[in-house]
Amino acid sequence: METVVFALLNGLIYGLLLFMLSSGLTLIFSMMGVLNMAHASFYMLGAYFAFTLGQSTGFWFALFLAPICVGAVGACVERWGLRRIHAGGHVGELLFTFGLAYVIEELVKIIWGKFAVAYEVPAELNFSLFELYGAQYPAYRMFMLLVSITMLAGLWYLLKRTRIGLIIQASLTHPHMVSHLGHNVPRIFMLVFAAGCALAGLSGVIGGNYLVTEPSMAFSIGPIVFVVVVVGGMGSLAGAFVASLLIGFLQTFAISIDANFAEIFSFAGLNPEGDLGRITISSLAPMLPFMLLVLMLMLRPRGLMGEREF
Amino acid sequence: MTDYSVDLVPDLAPSSQYKFATRVLPLLLMALLLLVIPLLEPSRTSLSLLNAVGINIVFALSYNMLLGQAGMLSFGHAVYFGFGGYAAMHAMNWIETASYDGGVWAAFPVFALPLVGFAGGAAAGAVIGWPSCRRAGVPFAMISLGLAELIAAAGLMFVGLFGGEEGITGDRMNGVEAFGLSLGPIGEVYWFIAFWAFAGTALMYAFTRTPLGKLAQAVRDNPERVQFVGYNPNKVRYLVFIAAGGFAGLAGGMSAVNYEIFTPESLSVIPSGLVLLMAYIGGARYFAGPILGAIMLTYMQSNFSDYSEAWLLYLGLLFIGMIMFAPRGLAGLLLSAVSGIQHSLTVKSLLRWGAYCTAGLLVVVGGVTLIELAVRRSNGFGEVFEPFGLHLSPEQVLPWMYGGVLLAAGVGLLTALHKVGEGESK
């Protein structure tokens, strides 16, 4: 019971963090048709910006400033990078963002060093909120939950209930019509790209001190974000939400299960010896999202809630 | 009615002379070059670099069977390189055991191990390609990425097959000696690598001339039409995928014999990314492009990493620059330079070329100065950047300004040239 409750809570927080990352990626994908391989790099930039800004302004200002800075970087990338190669087709754009991920990682190494920086949870939130089965539960995780849910609600309101959201949704499906109506569609694209990057930056700000802020953080979480987007269905925000939580729960539950295949095999009456028997469920956790991805693409290529096969 | 239609149709097929010059001569030149290199008595360092180049040429060409020929963007091609390499590595150890205890493998020369690698890579391609080749474009790229991550993680788990983190090692000086080569000294390994690099290149070139190779190009350009003509594009992709996996495995087998060690790291996404860069920077649209890319990147990898810690940054910038300004790669740049010299060699065009080169040089020099200063400042060891006897300290403002001014001048000149060029074309 204890394990289940903790795994549920942590899985929820991890899943919401993943959703914050993948919502930006999904928005960008459904609008521009480009899968931003450098998306996790913007997440990393968010964490590093928050670290640097936080030293002079404190965490609370950094919480707002860092995503804006990341969004500005994203806007520049779209304006002077992606827009220029848009005519060359999607493979060029995919490769561009792939190269960008390399460049951002190396730049981060030069600016902030090769090792993890001491980006820590702010002192105001560094206490335990409540006690659960004798273990302290840190308040910062609840804060993460709060930020994620606020962002989720804000994003939903913006897209579904405002005029801006209406124009954005229209530009997704009918870009020509929207531009005939007098809207600057390339600028909308740029703003959506910037907003997606800013969302990634925000998740970096609150995820960087929960996990570790180091140059390899982008490459460790990046592939999982793709899995979320593909499993949820390309371009579907609701699908990304479900898939984020699914993968969040899946990974945290797998980590908390203390068993290996030998026990399962001997339970099933199979030979527990050999390499396969030595594998523990928890060591499989990093592989689970990719297994899910491959299965999903084979069995239901459009993902959980995707409307079309992309 | 006189029938005059047949005689008037000109012979559109290329002449045999043209065929020889474009299809056979380059391969002959390559063979000649491979034969001449040992006469120059290269040092041990350059021999080991040449061996690495040979392996990467085959690997990059096999990758380009997917990217350039069939239009499939894969982020996990190192998986097949790795499976081929592991197959060859295990076979090498079987040869060693068989040479003491006897057995079938005792008669198998180490020289032919790349064939085992080919079989391993092709088998992996046949198994993994079955689910992934049913999709093309971005989904295919995503599946390949997911599978690469999956297999890289599995590589560390199945210790018996992949040898855990330290990998598996072998000894190439066992079994039957082919062509009188013991494969002990690096000079003899050179012949091994040269033979297989040539064989791999020739076979992959031959593949582009087969009906399947031609169909692959058709699938790349317009899969719908291919389907309309009566072929199944997914089947074509699958067959090309198996062949590409096989040649990647061949390169893996070469690597297994060359280094005598294979670790799960060579299955991971990092070498997969590197081979993608090789093929793209070299020029994916040309058969010879990946060869250029493999030579350049292997050279950079072994030499630049000594000079500069930021070589991966340079590589990334080079890649992005290629995508934005020269999507046809190095091969495309070379070809347009050659055709420029042949067709429009005027003073004006020379001046333009000169201006472009100057601007490019300014950008490179300014950018390198800034990056190197930044690296030294970030390390904090008080190092000084000393190119060509200059003394540029990262603690002073002036060197940074030099770099900044050079970069700005280069970018400004490029923008101005671009505007002039646009004005002329209007």
UniProtKB/TrEMBL annotation, chain A:
Lineage top rank: taxon: Bacteria
Transmembrane stretches, start-end: 6-27, 59-82, 94-119, 139-159, 188-212, 224-246, 253-270, 276-299
Record keyword Membrane present: yes
InterPro entries, per database record: ABC_transp_permease, BCAA_transport_permease
One MF term in the entry's GO annotations: transmembrane transporter activity
Protein name: High-affinity branched-chain amino acid transport system permease protein LivH
Keywords on record: Amino-acid transport, Cell membrane, Membrane, Transmembrane, Transmembrane helix, Transport
Predominant location: membrane
Compartments in which it is found: Cell membrane
Homology family: Belongs to the binding-protein-dependent transport system permease family. LivHM subfamily.
PANTHER family: ABC TRANSPORTER ATP-BINDING PROTEIN, BRANCHED-CHAIN AMINO ACID TRANSPORT SYSTEM PERMEASE PROTEIN LIVH
Membrane topology: Multi-pass membrane protein
Originating gene: livH_9
GO biological process: amino acid transport
GO cellular component, one term: plasma membrane
UniProtKB/TrEMBL annotation, chain B:
InterPro entries: ABC_transp_permease (IPR001851), LivM-like (IPR043428)
Keyword annotations from UniProtKB, A to Z: Cell membrane, Membrane, Transmembrane, Transmembrane helix
GO terms assigned for molecular function: branched-chain amino acid transmembrane transporter activity
Record's protein name: Leucine/isoleucine/valine transporter permease subunit
UniProt GO cellular component terms: plasma membrane
Lineage: Bacteria, Pseudomonadati, Pseudomonadota, Alphaproteobacteria, Hyphomicrobiales
Localization of this protein: Cell membrane
Membrane-spanning segments: 20-40, 47-66, 72-92, 104-128, 140-163, 238-262, 274-299, 311-338, 350-371, 397-417
Membrane topology listed for this record: Multi-pass membrane protein
Organism, as annotated: Pseudovibrio axinellae
